[in-house]
Amino acid sequence: MLILAIESSCDETSAAVCEFDGDTSVIRSNIIASQIETHKLYGGVVPEIASRAHCDAISSITYEALERAGVTLDDIDAVAVTSNPGLIGALLVGVNFAKALAFANGKPLIPVNHIRGHIAANYFVHPSLKPPFLALVASGGHTSLIKVTDYTEFETVGRTRDDAIGEAFDKVGRVMGLPYPGGAEMDRLASIGNSDAVKFPSAAVIGDNLDFSFSGLKTAVINHLHNAEQKGEAYVKEDIAASFTKAVTSSVVKKLTMAVEATGLSDIVIAGGVAANSHLRTALEALAEKRKLKLYLPPRSLCGDNAAMIGAQGYFEYLAGVRADTSLNAKATGK
Ligand code: KG4
Ligand code: ZN
Fold this sequence. Notes:
The chain contains ten helices and ten strands. The protein has helices at about 35-40, 45-70, 90-105, 115-125, 165-175, 185-190, 215-230, 235-265, 280-290, 305-320; strands spanning about 1-5, 10-20, 25-35, 80-85, 110-115, 135-140, 145-150, 155-160, 265-270, 295. Strand 9, helix 9 (about 280-290) and strand 10 form a beta-alpha-beta unit. About 50% of the residues are buried.
């Protein structure tokens, strides 16, 4: 079957055509219009501007996805759309566009949770991947450890209690003067810095839990930078990026290890924008090797927000009988 998928939860307008046939899934097209250049001017995503930019782009992006896939709307079997969580105004653009498209053309409409979508991106590239498995979703808006018991059954076993992991990368980057979003540049700087230059606190919440707290770590780094500035001392951005990244990766390794022990699961899936981080990938590969875990990493092209991942999860929601009617609404929250 062919699914047309639409994603507009944050600052990327994306449409994709995905083909599913039993155990095989193919991305026929996956068009992503990023608004980053616009939001860069403000140092972060401005929700009102994001919604307006989605309105401008969504129609042409959708038709480009159809054209690139070599199909027309007639060939599409179902429309999948991100309905939660995300920026409400941004989500509403995708949801209402998808509703109009689906119902005007007599196609079933499938609402998809964005976080489930990030996890599902892995099915395209890892045909052997099947639930149950443990997923780490690490993005700009979310940081969760999720037990995926079936394709449409999820149980969050750990989460951040404050900032998301990507948000911490971006905020530290911003204080060091890096353009928004700083995550990818922090990754590059960390590769040439000394990760033992400064010892930053862990983001793993102390105790018998699977939670993170990135706010304390972020504040410790920012205080360190402000202290250096006040004393007129120069700091080495590369060393700060490397030391911060070390604190982040060791926190993730610690809680993931605890989650493996708590759940008894040994298949691990990583998802979300921060899954592109080379240091995190290396640390998790080492953990997998040491603990004899099977690690599934998405290609970098499918880590960030994209509609193909919504199509992948949409397929399983469709098989499970999930359908939306014209009353479908967007929701800012929701696991
Ligand atoms: O999944 P995503 O595209 O959007 C959300 O759903 O939030 O994730 C975006 C986040 C941003 O915070 C960005 O800085 C971060 O992913 N990111 C990275 C890297 N590439 C993107 N963080 C660390 N290292 C990277 N290489
Ligand atoms: Zn995302």
